[in-house]
């Protein structure tokens, strides 16, 4: 991984086609929420399938916790859709068959010249694509467990949500004074929040 990609740095705002062929940026997909970003070897890999089966369970919690999940692989569009549907995922998958990320982040998995995938990583990003934590998943047990991601998301949410503890006097006062900007969804309607999650 490039030496400047480390906790506290801002992750590049890549733009890639999603599983429907629409070009999306990471910042567009993240909005103002925490984001778990999975840089995947691809659907051919049994380790990826197993990790994503666990993420299917976690994603249901992430949705009600207002957190985002995105997978990027070097699969083409057809393979991306097969991977996504094969594990039962309903979050955004981005396709990078040109290996833009692999080259830019310096993460070619040179031990697999047949598939030429990325070295798999899972990143937990604070709002603004700021890196909170990076997991190197070349070995399966280097990948985060569902519980580790829950703990990471809790820590990120405590840092980025002014209304994490609504019992604080400051929050009570803001609510009483009609200052709803300090309460999620921070100026959006519920419909806008849920529309952005697919």
Verbal overview:
- The chain is an alpha/beta fold and 198 residues long.
- It folds into two domains: 15-161, Glutaredoxin; 166-198, no CATH class.
- Helix content is 35%, strand content 18%.
- It has seven helices and seven strands, in the order ββαβαβαβαββααα.
- It has helices spanning 26-30, 46-64, 77-87, 100-104, 146-160, 169-176, 190-195; strands spanning 15-17, 23-25, 35-40, 68-73, 92-95, 121-126, 130-136.
- The strands form two sheets. It has a five-stranded mixed sheet with strand order 5-4-3-6-7. The chain has a two-stranded antiparallel sheet with strand order 1-2.
- The mean pLDDT is 93.
Layout: helices, strands, pairs:
Layout: E1 15-17, E2 23-25, H1 26-30, E3 35-40, H2 46-64, E4 68-73, H3 77-87, E5 92-95, H4 100-104, E6 121-126, E7 130-136, H5 146-160, H6 169-176, H7 190-195
Parallel strand pairs: 3-4, 4-5
Antiparallel strand pairs: 1-2, 3-6, 6-7
């Amino acid at each position: 991984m490039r030496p400047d990609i480390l906790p506290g740095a801002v992750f590049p705002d890549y733009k890639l086609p999603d599983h429907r062929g629409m070009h999306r940026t990471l910042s567009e997909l993240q909005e103002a929420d925490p984001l778990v970003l999975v840089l995947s070897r691809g659907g051919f890999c049994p380790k990826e399938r197993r990790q994503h089966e666990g993420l299917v369970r976690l994603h249901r919690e992430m949705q009600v916790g207002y957190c985002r999940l995105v997978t990027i692989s070097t699969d083409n569009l057809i393979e991306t859709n097969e991977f996504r549907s094969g594990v039962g995922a309903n979050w955004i998958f981005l396709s990078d068959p040109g290996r833009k990320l692999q080259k830019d982040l310096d993460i070619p998995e040179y031990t697999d010249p047949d598939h030429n995938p990325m070295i798999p990583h899972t990143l937990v990003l604070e709002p603004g694509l700021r890196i909170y934590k990076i997991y190197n998943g070349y070995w399966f047990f280097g990948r985060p467990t569902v519980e580790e991601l829950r703990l990471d998301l809790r820590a990120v949410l405590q840092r980025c949500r002014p209304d994490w503890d609504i019992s604080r006097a400051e929050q009570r006062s803001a609510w009483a004074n009609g200052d709803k900007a300090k309460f999620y969804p921070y100026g959006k309607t519920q419909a806008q929040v849920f529309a952005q999650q697919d």
